[in-house]
């Protein structure tokens, strides 16, 4: 499998103008981790480098076992859009039928964001500005809601005999009720990144921001995208509130509560995705179940807290 993927990555790079005759080296680009951070899981990440010039490209080979939660056509459409807007890596090749994406390699001079880096308000504001700019673009080919997806993923996890916690049905019922409460005030769907994972943010030495891994992109309530990011970026609510207020031009409690509830629902969604991949994927060296357990623990903590009921009363 390793050599087969390496050959696929090289073959697609050689399709690019000026790369056919180069002497290249090809190696895994980043460590693939399901836990604690879902990084490199959706597609095999490869770095192809020109031995003479040092120029490199990043190649992503989408995994077949991710097809149930990734719409490749929409994901690649979003990646190309982000490239055009200057908020994502430049895309040189996006082949939907083979699931291959060849992009600018954000290697030298770039670092993956961490929670520590997001203590810097300026960095946070740049990230949210990039997400907001994407939301102003034309509609994508897929529209989704976290509440619809948790229903689907829960059914699928049961059918796959996934290892769900004893209170999974209760969590689903609570979030189903939240979806019903929030239904009347949902905002019009806009193009959204769809995944608040901090490792989807790249920061340059000069403070530039690029958003990567557009696999979960689609049209959604903008507060859903906001809630996903706030849940991942901030351990404490005061900092999340401050970031929300700066982005929104003031603090709207009802809107913030909606974003917070969307973040709770996103934890359940990712817990179910992790459970399903653990049940179905042949890649048994990755800790999918551990990742799912963590997201479900965080969801459970939120639903058990008085904050959950208070937020539902004030949306």
Features:
alpha+beta; Phosphorylase Kinase, domain 1; Aminoglycoside 3'-phosphotransferase, Chain: A, domain 2; 10 helices
The biggest beta sheet reads: 5 strands, antiparallel
Q: Which runs of at least 5 residues are low in confidence (pLDDT < 50)? A: none
CATH topology of the largest domain: Aminoglycoside 3'-phosphotransferase, Chain: A, domain 2
CATH superfamily placement of the largest domain: Aminoglycoside phosphotransferase (APH), C-terminal lobe
The CATH class of the largest domain: Alpha Beta
The Rg value, from CA coordinates, equals 20 Å
Range of strand content: 5-15%
Q: What order do the helices and strands follow?
A: HEEEHEEEHHHEEEEHHHHH
Count, helices: 10
Number of domains: 2
Major beta sheet, strand line-up? 1-2-3-5-4
| DSSP, total strands | 10
What overall geometry do the principal axes of the alpha carbons give?
A: globular
Work out the helicity level.
Answer: 40-55%
Oligomer: single chain
CATH architecture of the largest domain: Alpha-Beta Complex
**Overall mean pLDDT:** 96
> Structural class of the helix and strand makeup?
alpha+beta
